[in-house]
Structure prediction request, 64 residues.
Amino acid sequence: MNGYYFEIRKAVNGQYFFRFRAPNHETIVVSETYTARASCDHAVSLLKSYAAGATIKDNTALAA
Prediction:
């Protein structure tokens, strides 16, 4: 196990969000909020299954 983990939390407005955290507990990513816990769980599942094969699109070089 590499020590990285997802942390599901409840926001002050009652909605759900997740954090992706490093082994040293530093937050790497914070999600949007979801009205249903199932939606938050689904987003985590999608990231877990697709993130390793994702490519990087660098839009910083695009003309303004």
